[in-house]
Design a protein that fits this description.
about 500 residues, mainly beta, 7-stranded antiparallel β-sheet
Length: about 500
């Protein structure tokens, strides 16, 4: 029995025969017969693809193994071995091809191929340009260097704009968040909280489509860890609290690329699931408090948590009692400062006066903690839930709220000369009403200038990021702004 995609192709065969072959494009005009072309390079959004099975040139057309469509485009590939039909789904796009046939289905319409898909050395090969364009990608061929460029939803440009002190160079990266093949990610220096790394090294390590520096971090005292000075949510959990006392300007995203900029207070709340001592059963309703997470720069008299994102050890120089939790259960209490962090758990540090709570964490106690978001000025309040927010970073001050400039550094405790004073190199994030992310750096301007620039660029909501020597921006294979010092964290756009 024929599958539905094949029946659709057969039913419209007469119509398809009447179609004229598509005009040859530069990439299709690549000269060659038979099978060859192993020296062809392919870039997606400036990112060079790595192939263990190289692309091939058959009769002047570039073909790639079908699994790379899924790997690099984020498509879902289905293979019908009986009828030798390949189906590719990506968002609302659907492409159906059959081995050896010059007719393909694209979103219900029939298209004619110049060269059909084929099987070579046990691999199913499909035409790169045809599938790319059917999935909404723009394809460009560099004949001289034999390179294929496939553009994603990442666009970048540089312009010069007037500011209060003259003119400034403005670098803009515009990311279409409707592109299902991309995702956002908060990236820490060396994949660890509390250390630094050159921006160029982070880009080389992650190979993003685009990247911008993140939030502020401590650099003044070299005897202390180089910790972020604001909040971070990474892989669905709050992993750093730098400003739990205020409503900080925060950019956040979900796994399906919903985004928001809001003013947010974050905190963690500890809970008990099993308490060995029956005299402490009241703690089931009270829980246990957490002052901060993965942060050493905090008061001595506090309870703080350290997770594996901190690194191998807590890096703490404050004495106290360290409660070792593995797989949700307290396994040990250790007195001291810098202690190992279990890869399958975390450390609860009771410092100063808080050692009085040690009996609430005796061995055998089972516990957890949850993330809490207190949100103001949000355009998408429903996304601010534990398990829904996948990544977030706080910085500030806020520049634009619902299309209007709402700059008020004092309300975010950011009314300091470094931010509100003289013109500086700056960076910012913005969200448009067309669901686009703006990643922007400006060569030198005031914070007021930055707010005006973001509004003129079309931002409906926008916030300031770290700037000065930390200002960094990368897109489509080029560094648009390079920092003069190592940085702590970055926001990156990656292929899904």
């Amino acid at each position: 029995m024929k599958s539905k995609p094949l029946l659709k192709l057969v039913n419209v065969l007469v119509i398809a025969i009447m179609l004229l072959p598509a005009c040859l494009s530069p990439v299709d005009a690549y000269i060659g017969n038979g099978i060859g072309g192993q020296d062809i390079a392919i870039y997606i959004g400036g990112q060079k693809l790595s192939f263990d099975t190289p692309p091939l040139n058959k009769e002047g057309r570039i073909f790639v193994p079908i699994r790379y469509i899924a790997e690099y485009f984020g498509g879902e590939v289905e293979w019908d071995p009986e009828n030798q039909i390949v189906n590719v789904r990506n968002g609302s796009s659907f492409v159906s091809l059959q081995i050896g046939f010059k007719f393909a289905g694209v979103n219900g319409a029939v298209k004619v191929l110049d060269v059909p898909p084929f099987i070579y050395s046990g691999r199913t090969y499909v035409p790169l340009r045809f599938v790319s364009e059917a999935l909404g990608k723009e394809v460009r061929w560099d004949d001289q260097n034999r390179v294929v460029y496939i553009e994603t939803g990442v666009e970048s440009y540089t312009t010069t704009l007037a500011v209060s002190t003259g003119t400034a160079t403005v670098n803009v990266v515009k990311v279409s968040l409707n592109d299902p093949t991309i995702k956002l990610e908060i990236v820490n220096a060396q994949d660890q909280i509390g250390v630094l790394e050159p921006f160029e090294s982070m880009v080389e390590r992650k190979n993003p489509l685009a990247a911008i520096n993140g939030t502020f971090f401590q650099v003044a005292d070299t005897s202390l860890p180089m910790e972020p000075a604001a909040n971070l949510v990474i892989n669905g959990r709050i992993e750093h609290l730098g400003t739990p006392e205020k409503y900080a300007s925060t950019f956040a995203f979900t796994q399906d690329n919903q985004v928001d900029i809001a003013n947010v207070k974050m905190k963690l709340q500890g809970e008990y699931t099993y308490i060995p001592n029956p005299e402490l059963e009241r703690l089931y309703t009270q829980g246990w408090y957490i002052g901060t997470i993965n942060r050493t720069m905090w008061g001595e008299n506090s309870i703080r948590v350290f997770t594996p994102l901190r690194g191998a050890t807590t890096g703490l120089n404050v004495d106290g009692i360290n409660v070792i939790v593995r797989n949700g259960e307290v396994v040990e209490q250790v007195t001291g400062t810098n202690v190992p962090i279990p890869p399958d758990g975390y450390v609860i540090h009771l410092g100063g006066t808080e050692v009085r709570f040690k009996d609430r964490f005796e061995v055998g106690t089972r516990l957890s903690y949850r993330d809490i978001y207190d949100v103001r000025n949000s355009s998408n309040p429903e996304m601010w839930q534990e398990g829904v927010i996948w990544g977030a970073l706080s910085a500030g001050p806020r520049l634009i709220t619902n299309g209007e400039i709402t700059l008020d550094p004092a309300s975010e405790l950011l009314d300091i000369p470094k931010i509100t004073g003289q013109p500086l190199t700056r960076s910012a994030l913005g969200i448009t009403q067309n669901n686009e992310l703006l990643m922007v750096t400006v060569s030198k301007c005031t914070i007021q200038d930055l707010a005006t620039i973001m509004k003129d660029l079309g931002a409906y909501n926008a916030m300031n990021l770290d700037g000065g020597a930390s200002t960094s921006l990368y897109a489509n294979g080029k560094f648009l702004a390079t920092p003069t010092r190592k940085i702590s964290n970055a926001l990156m756009v990656l292929p899904r």
